Amino acid sequence: MNKKISLGLAVSLVAISIAVTFILTSFFSLQSFNRKVLDVNEKGKKYDSLQLLDTYVRENYYGDINETELTDGILKGYVSGLDDKYSRYLTEDEYNTEKEDSSGRVVGMGLTLEHDDSGYIAVTGVMENSPASDSGIQEGDIIISADGVDVKDMTFEEAMDFMRGNVGSEISLTVRRNGIDRDYSFIREEIEVVSVTGEMLSNYTGYIKISSFKENTTQQFIDVLERLTSNGAKSLIFDLRDNGGGLVTALEDCLDPLLPEGVVATAEYKDGHSETIVYSDESEIELPMVVIVNENTASAGELFTAALRDAGKADIVGVQTYGKGVMQVTSEFDDGSAVVLTVAEYKTAVSDCYDGVGITPDYVVDNSDSDIDAQLNKAIEILQAV
Questions:
Q1: Other CB atoms closer than 10 Å to residue 14's CB: what's the count?
Q2: Is-contact 277 302, C-beta < 8 A?
Q3: DSSP state of 10
Q4: CB 323, CB 298: distance < 8 Å
C-alpha cells in the first residue's frame, strides 16, 4: 500500500531542498569569490610595487632610460621569476633569430661563433658550402673587428647583431691567428644547416649522425636513411651525442619509418589531460639498431632514444643523458615578441618521464680517451654480434 504525504509536508521538503541548494551554492560561490579577491589583491600588490619602483627610478636614476629596453627587461624579469630554466621572453629580434634557427636555414657567412675570454669572438666552426668555407678561416681563429668596428667594444650579443644582415649584403672581418691579423670580405648568403649526415661503415653498418631536429631535418634524415638502406645497410647506428633537441614534429617524422604503428609519446598538461605528440604509422624498418648518447643528449634527442629503446628496436650506448622531459610552446605577441613557456611533461607510451633524471644506457661507455671513439666502437661491436 502506497504511503501518502501531506501537501504541507511536500512543500516544506521542497523549501528545505531549495534552501540547502542555495546555501551550498552561496558557500562555494563565496569561496570562489574570496579566492579571486585574494588573487586580485596579490596582483595589485605586485603592480603597486612595480609602480613605486618605476617612480623612484625615474625620479632618481642619473642616466637615460631606454623605454624599449626597460619594457623588455620587465617582461624578461617576469618570466625569469618563474624559476624555470626553459621558459623565456623573447624580443622581436630574438624571436626572429630563433625562428631562423628552427627553420634550418640561416643568412650569414657560415661561421659558428662564441665569446672568447679575451673579449673578442672565437670561431668554433665553419659550415660546409658557405661563404666562409673556402676563405681559409679556421676553427680557433679570433674575430677582432667587423666592418672596421672593434668587437671588444660591444657585448657578444651586440656584436652578433652587428654582424647579421640580409642576403647579398657585404661584411668585412679582421681575423687573428697566432698573433697575425688578416682581413676577409664576405657576401652574406642563405645557408642550409646540415643537421643529419651519414656514411656506410664496415660490415654494411649504416651510421647516421643527428645533431638537432629542425624543420629541414626530416628530409635530410629520409635522404640519408634511404641512401644507406639502398646501398645495403644491414644495421643502423644513430649518433645523438650533443643533440640538444628541437622540433617535436621533426622528431616524429624521423621516428616514423623506424617504429611500428601506434602511439609513441604523450604530453600531460597542467589540467591533467594528455595528448599524443608522437605517432608512428604501420611502415617500419626491420634492422638491428644502436643509439649513441652522451651527457648533452637532451629533450627531443632523448625522446628519440627512449622511443627506440622502449619499442625494443635499439640498444643504447654512452653515458647518462641530460634529463629534459618537459615541453615548451612559443606564443607570439602582436608586437612581434614572444614567450617560450613550459606547458607539459612528456614521456614515451611505455616508460616514465625522464625529466631531471636522464636515460641510462644499456652499455655505459665513457669516451675518456679522445683519440679513440670507444662509444662508436662499442656500438659496432654490438651490431656485429647480432
A1: 10
A2: no
A3: H
A4: yes
Long-range contacts of 92-99 (CB under 8 A, 24+ apart): 92/335, 92/336, 92/337, 93/161, 95/330, 95/332, 95/336, 95/337, 95/338, 96/336, 97/164, 98/330, 98/338
pTM reported for the whole predicted model: 0.82
238 in Cβ contact with 202 (< 8 Å) = no
Which CATH architecture is the domain 196-384 placed in? Alpha-Beta Complex (3.90)
pLDDT (tens digit per residue) in 1-55: 445 556 555 556 556 666 556 555 555 555 555 555 556 677 777 778 888 988 9
**79: enclosing H helix or E strand:** helix 67-80
Nearest 5°: phi and psi at 48? -65, -40
Length of the chain: 386
User: Taking the domains of the chain in order of start, what are their residue ranges?
Assistant: 12-57, 105-192, 196-384
Spatial CA neighbour of 265 closest among 356, 360, 353? 353
Contact 149, 215 (CB under 8 A): no
pLDDT in tens, 208-240: 999 999 999 999 999 999 999 999 999 999 999
Give the whole-angstrom CA distance, residue 96 versus residue 338: 10
Reading the block at residue 280, the C-alpha cell is: 608512428
Residue 249: CB partners within 8 Å, gap ≥ 6?
A: none
* Architecture per CATH, 105-192: Roll (2.30)
Backbone angles phi, psi at 56, to 5 degrees: -65, -45
Backbone angles phi, psi at 347, to 5 degrees: -160, 165
Residue 178 burial (CB count, 10 A): 7
